[in-house]
Each structure stands twice: as structure tokens, then as C-alpha cells.
């Protein structure tokens, strides 16, 4: 009986020891598992924090890139607008210059045409005036008028500076509407030679177109004392006066 009791006590102690070691082993495994889980959780939290940080950095970089892209886009747009404005201003300026040039050319052409028409009209008017004079004046009246004009021309000729006449000019044509009297020829010859201060050939010719008076021709130069010239000068003076009054 005592042996059985000891057996049960021994079995109890053995079971207690086994249970103790099993419980201790279980507790150690449990703690190890908990520690391992906590470690994994800690690592996961660290990874989550790192991931969050990276996401935040990525968001910040993305926002920064957005700002940079917007600034670059705004800059490019502004530069494009400025270039377009400069090109537009250049085009407008060029068009304005071309327009002003066209207007100037048109005005010059208009003035030139008006001058040509006026010159043609003056010539026709002078010729018409000369034709009227030739028809209404008798030969005697023409001669008297021409004589008055020649004498007036002689007086002016004596006061005229003829130093500009080239020394290469060797002759002068004295043009009158009709033959000049001998004494008038002599006086004209004397005045011309005196003013020229050298020998020169003097040719007396007639031309009804001058209407009266006298015309001296030195090559391309001329001293005009004809009725035709007087009518032209008077006509121009009247035109100028009319324009001034207008």
C-alpha cells in the first residue's frame, strides 16, 4: 500500500515536472512567437513609415514638378506672345511704311502728272496767245512792239553778267521774229562783244514762233527777251498769285 502511494506520489511529481516543463516550454515558445510577431510588426511599421515618407517625398516632388512645368509653360507662353506681338508690330510697321510709301509715290505721281499737264497747258496757252497776237496785230504793230522789246532787252543786256558763258562758245544766235534793222544789229553786236570781251561770231536769224523781241542763244544757254517768254513768266506769276489767293 505504501508502495502504491509512493508510486502515485512519484507519478504526480513526474507529471508535475512534465507539466512544468511543458508549460515553461509553451510559455517560452509563446513569448518567442510574440516577440517575433512584435518584431515583424515593428518592421512592418518601419516599412510603412518609410513607404509613407517616400510617398510624401514623391508627392512633394510631383507638386514641385507641377509648379516647374506651370512656370515653364507660362514662360514659354509669355515668350510666344511677346514674339507674336513683336512680329505683329513689325508687320504693322512694315505695312504702314509701305502704305506711306505708296501714298507718297501716288502723291508724287499725281504732282508730276499735274506738272506735266500744267506744262503742256502752258505751252498750248503760249502758242494760242502767240497765234492770237499774230492774227490781231498788223505787221507794223508787230514791228513796233518788237522794237520796243529789243530796246528794252538791250538795256537789260548791258546790265547782265555774261561771265558764266563758256570760253568754248564761239558763236551766238540772235533770234528775232523778223529781220532786225541795221542800226539795231550794230548796237546788239557792240553790246555782245563788249560783254563777252572777246571775238565771237554773231548770227542773226528769224523765228516767227517767238512772237517778238529777241532771243540770244549761246549753245545750250539762252538770254530770252521774247514775247513768248514774257507771256510764260506773266502766266506763271498769275498762277502763283491765284494759288496764293486761293
Write a concise keyword list for the protein shown above:
4 strands, four-stranded mixed beta sheet, rod-shaped, 246 residues, alpha+beta, single chain, 4 helices, hypothetical protein PF0899 fold
Task: Characterise the protein shown here.
The protein has four helices and four strands, in the order ααβαβββα. It has 246 residues and is an alpha+beta fold. The mean pLDDT is 74. It is rod-shaped. It has a domain at 139-245: 2-Layer Sandwich (hypothetical protein PF0899 fold), CATH 3.30.2320. α1 (2-136) packs across α4 and α2 (139-158) runs parallel beside α3. The protein has helices at residues 2-136, 139-158, 182-196, 227-245, and strands at 171-176, 201-206, 213-218, 221-226.
Rg, rounded, reads 63 Å
Could you give a short account of the major beta sheet?
4 strands, mixed
Strand content: 5-15%
Average pLDDT level? 74
CATH topology of the domain at 139-245: hypothetical protein PF0899 fold
Multimerization status? single chain
Principal-axes geometry comes out as: rod-shaped
Question: How are the elements arranged and paired?
Answer:
Layout: H1 2-136, H2 139-158, E1 171-176, H3 182-196, E2 201-206, E3 213-218, E4 221-226, H4 227-245
Parallel strand pairs: 1-2
Antiparallel strand pairs: 1-3, 3-4
Helix pairs in contact: 1-4, 2-3
